[in-house]
What we know:
Blueprint: E1 3-7, E2 17-22, H1 31-40, H2 42-49, E3 60-63, E4 71-76, H3 87-104, E5 109-112, H4 124-141, E6 147-152, H5 155-169
Parallel strand pairs: 1-6, 2-4, 2-5, 5-6
Antiparallel strand pairs: 3-4
Helix pairs in contact: 3-4, 4-5
Bound molecules: ligand AR6.
Residues 9-11, 21-23, 29-33, 35, 77, 113-120, 151, 153-154, 157 line the site of ligand AR6.
Amino acid sequence: MPLHIEKGDITTYPTDAIVNAANRTLLGGGGVDGAIHRAAGPELLEECKTLGGCETGEAKITKGYRLPAKYVIHTPGPIWYGGTRGEAERLCASYYNSLRLAEEHDCASVAFPSISTGVYHFPLDLAAPIALETILSFLETAKCVRDVTMVCFDDKTLAAYEKALQALQGK
Ligand code: AR6
């Protein structure tokens, strides 16, 4: 199975690319974004400053610097406003556009954090199936990307993604 769900710290993953749950400035923040910038070192912020920010659901790529990953793909996921502002479509776009960029840069392996389910408060039980469906449908036609890992930072997140995968496989 080319899709894996694991508990872990994404900054330790030696995949071709890791994805950063960023904000629209792309200039760093808390959560996984802060952890990635700390682990990558200050050169990452220097490159991010040249990118001019990023719209919600879009994605931009940088080098990985001191990370074991070759690239970091930065995507601002949607902030949850109750589900009436296109949050689901935008979350799907964050995963899809990140994978498209990975494909364009000849990445075979990609690791994702659970985008938007921390500070941005997207409900985990709604976010997990959106993430997995988008990744699985992308993998069906991908030419380069063949190994995607969802890296869950805590047990609650891990349980939500495992449950969502079981539900999809039962369909
Ligand atoms: N590895 C994997 N997952 C992690 C790690 C890690 N090292 N650290 C945290 N997580 P969040 P968001 C999980 O808040 O909701 C930032 O300030 C975390 O437990 O990082 O998209 C940005 O600059 C949660 O499950 O991202 C934005 O302003 C998941 O990563 C804003 O937060 C996402 O939580 C983005 O909010």
